[in-house]
Amino acid sequence: MWLKQIHKESAMADETQTETTEETTAAETAEPKGPSSMADQIPEMSDSQLAALLANAEKISAAPKHAKKDMAAELIPLIGEELDKRAVIKQAEQAERRQQQAAKRAETRRIAKAQKEAEQAES
Fold first, then answer.
1. To the nearest whole percent, how much of the chain has pLDDT over 70?
2. What's phi and psi for 27, nearest 5 deg?
3. How far is 34 from 115, CA to CA, in rounded Å?
4. Euclidean distance between CA atoms 76 and 56, whole angstroms
5. CA angle at residue 67 from 31 to 79, to 5 degrees?
6. Where is pLDDT greater, at 96 or 3?
7. With contact defined as beta carbons under 8 Å apart, do 33 and 41 qualify?
8. What is the DSSP letter of 1?
């Protein structure tokens, strides 16, 4: 899919070079490639997608010669920050759920105790 888009953008760039200068080229209208566009996508990724992206970025940045080594190195801290942020959010949600469950159990015990006392008062 992305390969088709690259070919399409390349063809558009070739066509615009031969047309008037008033028209914009595909390079001017195309979204930026690289860490900035990938960084923008990080918040929308799932946890499993982030884990896979982190593994790939670490692998690429560790390679001695790779064309995207610098981009990968820039993404690693961004991915780490997002994963840390999500971990904090999950911990807060778990703490809130535990509080709600404890309150629910306490209310259930209070109701059961009140019912037991009411039954004993009747007899």
1. 71
2. -65, -35
3. 66
4. 10
5. 65
6. 96
7. no
8. -
- Higher-confidence residue: 109 or 10? 109
Number of C-beta neighbours around residue 19 at 10 A:
9
> Helices in the chain by DSSP H: which ranges?
2-18, 26-29, 35-41, 47-62, 69-122
- Give the tens place of pLDDT for each residue, 63-119: 888 888 888 999 999 999 999 999 999 999 999 999 999 999 999 999 999 999 999
DSSP state letter for 65:
S
Instruction: Give the three-class secondary structure for 19.
Output: coil
Token pair for 89: 């959010």
Domain ranges of the chain: 1-30, 32-122
Q: How far apart are CA 95 and CA 11, in angstroms?
A: 55
Q: What is the rounded distance in angstroms from the CA atom of residue 11 to the CA atom of residue 17?
A: 10
